[in-house]
């Protein structure tokens, strides 16, 4: 078995491929204290051939398992290429960062952009607002789809956006409309990042953010391209790392 | 710090407690970043030593200058005609301005969103923790950016500040203005020493600084001349360049030449600090005042090697010498000096295309594999100029990554991810080329 481990800021994702290059194992748990111990527990009885780790905690996994690491950029490019060999642009919305990656014909990335140190336009941003509105992230998309007014959230800093949300609530604005405004502002943020890299078809959207159907729809509208979401978008980094693990061995087969 | 330095600090009206807090953090960082490197050249030890004595022995030496009434001038910019200060028997050096440590104190007076170098420098004066600032007769300021220009006015209330008007274009009118500014600077130094500088003195000053630049040019050449042998790390080379702003110029030149002799031997013997297929990175953009070692450390612990800095602490500082050929008078020397300083391709100039041409030429000569455009946050000139530079680099199919950062450590993880990805793509391109 070939394993990719993606230790993200919010969740740790594990993807396993068999010898036939089929995904047969996917597992996710919240990243808490010592995620490497959780990974160890999970892999204990598995037949592990090669591990490759990625994500912000990749070096911790490297130290624990003595395995190679790859950057999240490379992992997402490889993950997207695995599902869509004609992918040209990947948008990834993770817990604390967002990135846009240009992929070449061989599945390697040629250019990328990543957000600066700020929660604007990241999953954290969605999380903060959801918790303030008292709704779950799962409800978020469907709530926003029922909006009857297109309001704009103008603050891009997560903390100020939160206070903007509070003042909207004080004005008796509906939760549906606020949710729409928040998702719309994240889409704007992502679109300006994507446009700076000159997007091309096919555009693949990965990371936990891709689970939000309203965000997918708004991104597509603003970019003027259809945005494709792979199966298990939140696992794309782990899957890319697992693909790298297979490639590592591939050289010797 | 030994007792004798404490006496000096007292004389300089420093905040001794706060200063020792700063120094213990600095030494810890220095040892983590530099002393953990493997396979360093033997002659780097002098520079390690000087760094360890940066606020000790070196300040003691400067105290002797002060006692002899020789001018001590501190600066944050390479437009300072340091030859004139050296000609007068004085010393010219870079001031503290590369640490997060002093920024909170600066932000009481200065806006948060100006560049960290200015905030850090101003904060050191407010804190009274930089002996170089404290000991100086005056601080040399210039008009290279808005934030600096206005900060000098505020700083002048705390410490005498001499502002030189550096124009932002390079035509005839600007040249005339600039010449006047150099004469005015010379007058200021002459007032301190109480006499006019002679032709011989000025010539000597130029020779000393020319030699320092030659030494740095040689180091710059040796570290990047062989595509498969890099005899010294980018971090160590950066350290040497940073120390060029503090050390006694004559002693420094001798030590750099000794280091270069060793590097030549290393090249002959094939001793390299990295594997032969390590991606070779040029760092271009804003200066890295010590202890700002963040980017180099990330690159070199992530599998790359920095082979050059196109920055003010770097190539921009030492690329041109003052031509003394045929000079006969003080006026001749000043004219040559002016010519030399006008070649500096600082982003404060418009237009500044010579910088872009230089970068591309350098990239090819040094057989680099990629360029990182580094800019300090809110450094508008270099930040805005990055668009023109990066567009040209992309036209030339040169891999480039832009990184904007400040002195805090909070974005190290993100920078690491970006640099790692950049190196991965370069390595892929390299292996692809090798297979073909």
Automatic annotation (TrEMBL), chain A:
Keyword vocabulary terms for this entry: Iron, Iron-sulfur, Metal-binding
One term of GO molecular function: metal ion binding
Pfam families listed in its UniProt record: BcrAD_BadFG
Cofactor(s), by name: [4Fe-4S] cluster
Keyword Cytoplasm: no
All copies of domain ATPase BadF/BadG/BcrA/BcrD type, residue ranges: 4-245
NCBIfam families: CoA_E_activ
Name by which UniProt lists this protein: CoA-substrate-specific enzyme activase
Organism encoding this protein: Thermotomaculum hydrothermale
Lineage: Bacteria, Pseudomonadati, Acidobacteriota, Holophagae, Thermotomaculales
């Amino acid at each position: 078995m070939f394993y990719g481990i993606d230790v993200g800021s919010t969740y740790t994702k594990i993807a396993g491929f068999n010898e036939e290059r089929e995904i047969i194992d996917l597992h996710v748990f919240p990243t808490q204290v010592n995620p490497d111990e959780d990974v160890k527990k999970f892999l204990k009885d598995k037949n592990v051939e090669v591990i490759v780790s990625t994500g912000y905690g990749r070096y911790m996994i490297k130290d624990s398992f003595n395995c190679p690491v790859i950057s999240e950029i490379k992992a997402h490019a490889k993950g997207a290429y695995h599902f869509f060999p004609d992918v040209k642009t990947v948008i990834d919305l993770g817990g604390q960062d967002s990135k846009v990656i240009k992929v070449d014909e061989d599945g390697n990335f040629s250019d990328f952009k990543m957000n600066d140190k700020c929660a604007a336009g990241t999953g954290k941003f969605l999380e903060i607002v959801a918790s303030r509105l008292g709704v779950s992230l799962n409800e978020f998309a469907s709530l926003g789809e029922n909006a009857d007014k297109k309001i704009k959230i103008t603050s891009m800093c997560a903390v100020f956006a939160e206070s903007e949300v509070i003042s909207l609530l004080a004005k008796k604005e509906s939760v549906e409309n606020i949710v729409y405004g928040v998702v719309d502002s994240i889409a704007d943020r992502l679109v300006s990042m994507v446009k700076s890299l000159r997007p091309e078809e096919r555009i693949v959207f990965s990371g936990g953010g891709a689970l939000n159907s309203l965000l997918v729809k708004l991104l597509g509208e603003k970019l003027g391209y259809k945005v494709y979401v792979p199966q298990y978008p939140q696992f794309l980094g782990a899957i890319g790392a697992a693909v790298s693990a297979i490639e590592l061995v591939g050289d010797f087969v | 710090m030994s007792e004798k330095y404490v006496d000096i600090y007292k004389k300089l009206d420093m905040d001794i407690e706060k200063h020792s807090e700063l120094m213990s953090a600095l030494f810890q960082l220095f040892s983590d970043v530099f002393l953990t490197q493997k396979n360093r050249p033997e002659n780097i030890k002098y520079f390690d030593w000087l760094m360890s004595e940066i606020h000790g022995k070196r300040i003691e030496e400067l105290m002797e200058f002060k006692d002899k009434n020789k001018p001590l001038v501190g600066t944050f910019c390479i437009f300072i005609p340091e030859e004139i200060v050296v000609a007068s028997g004085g010393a010219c050096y870079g001031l503290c301005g590369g640490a997060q440590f002093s920024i909170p104190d600066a932000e009481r007076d200065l806006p948060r969103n100006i560049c960290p170098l200015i905030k850090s420098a101003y904060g050191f004066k407010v804190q009274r923790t930089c002996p170089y600032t404290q000991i100086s007769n005056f601080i040399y300021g210039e008009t290279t950016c808005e934030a600096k220009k206005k900060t000098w006015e505020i700083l002048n209330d705390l410490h005498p500040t001499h502002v030189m008007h550096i124009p932002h274009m390079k035509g005839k009118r600007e040249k005339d203005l600039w010449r006047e500014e150099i004469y005015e600077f010379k007058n200021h130094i002459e007032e301190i020493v109480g006499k006019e500088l002679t032709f011989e003195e000025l010539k000597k000053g130029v020779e000393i600084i020319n030699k320092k630049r030659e030494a740095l040019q040689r180091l710059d050449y040796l570290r990047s001349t062989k595509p498969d042998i890099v005899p010294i790390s980018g971090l160590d080379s950066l350290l040497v360049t940073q120390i060029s702003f503090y050390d006694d110029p004559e002693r420094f030149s001798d030590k750099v030449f000794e280091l270069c002799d060793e590097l030549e031997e290393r090249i002959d013997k094939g001793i390299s600090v990295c594997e032969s297929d390590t991606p070779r990175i040029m760092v271009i953009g804003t200066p890295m005042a010590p202890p700002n070692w963040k980017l180099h450390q990330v690159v070199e612990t992530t599998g790359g090697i920095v082979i050059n800095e196109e920055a003010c602490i770097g190539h921009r500082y030492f690329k041109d010498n003052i031509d003394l050929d045929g000079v006969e008078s003080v006026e001749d020397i000043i004219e040559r000096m002016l010519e030399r300083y006008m070649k500096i391709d600082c982003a404060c100039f418009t237009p500044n295309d010579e910088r872009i041409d230089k970068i591309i030429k350098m990239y090819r000569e040094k057989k680099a594999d990629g360029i990182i455009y580094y800019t300090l946050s809110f450094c508008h000139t270099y930040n805005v100029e990055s668009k023109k530079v990066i567009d040209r680099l992309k036209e030339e199919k040169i891999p480039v990554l832009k990184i904007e950062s400040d002195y805090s450590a909070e974005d190290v993880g993100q920078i690491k991810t970006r640099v790692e990805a950049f190196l991965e793509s370069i390595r892929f391109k390299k292996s692809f080329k090798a297979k073909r």
